[in-house]
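Deviations from the work plan: none for this task. Representative record:
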Amino acid sequence: MVRPIATTRSASGVPTGRLAVWWVLASEIVIFGGLLGSYLLHRLGHPEWATYASHTNTWAGAFNTFVLLTSSLSAVLAHQAAEQGNGKKAANLLLATCGGALIFLIVKSFEWTAEIQHGYTITANGFWSFYYIAAGLHGLHVIAGAIIMLIVAADARKGKDLQRVELIGIYWHFVDLVWIFLFPLLYIAK
Amino acid sequence: MSTPSSHSHEHGHESGGHEAHDGAHHTNYVKIWAMLLVLLGVSLAGPELGIRTVTLLTAFGIAVVKAYMVAKYFMHLNIERRFVVQLLTVCLGLMMLFFLATAPDVMKHWGMNWRNESAKNANIPEATHHAEGGEHAAAGHEVVPAHEAAPAHQAAPAHEAAPAHGAGE
């Protein structure tokens, strides 16, 4: 069977599939870096935003941080299982990671519902605009990661394309990493 | 079947990552995760002291430490080819450049030949009070108190002053 080029070629010393993921993440750094940099600039220029930030739910944010850190653990354990050739275990651990993504999104939806009901909508002021755009963009990455993980897990269960477990894991850790910075910016600094 | 191990073996010689990937197998991921949770606890406890410096250190200092640990141990950047780390570092550097280059315009509210009244007004306590439901109430429609006004040597002449809805905000 002919393998896709991303799984067989390595012109740079890094498998092409993994190199592609690093390129994606390099562009993601610019996307999230630009957004968070802009937020930081405006936040420093507007001390009154601290008042708005005091309405965010720190405990919900902390719980979601715990969920993402734990899902990162299951993702890296899935990678470890894939390296040992244990596709079934890798698939189960990826499904656990997807469970983390689901919990994260459920908590976020409750959080947003409460905030919107209190009148803190995306158009309320600059802080809430940044809050919804940054958390929303991150949430979209969580959804995309979970969908890809389900596909990779289905293949891994059959022992197919196990190298992809590492690739989706790297992406997922980046999603976790972005949240690590979003949490203090939006929830702690008040 | 292609496994991650096969990639490590195929390319490990070039990258010097063969031994390193073996080393990754010995990483105690649960221990790293537990350390990350302890750091999360510290970042939550820091603001409880009510000291601004401690809050900033525990919130953002610990975020940097956590990010470093995730990148190093979970993403295995410590055993990845050096050019990958350089690629990511360049992108981070560009972001820093973006921040530093735009900071003066966004964070300062007046300069040699310009004033940003709406941004300035948004910071005064009265405007903050009105802006509880939104910034619109403070957006350039309030008079800047004398003590809040730009220093005389920095104030732009009336005919050069920016309109109330200053650029950039």
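Chain A touches chain B through 72 residues (CB under 8 Å).
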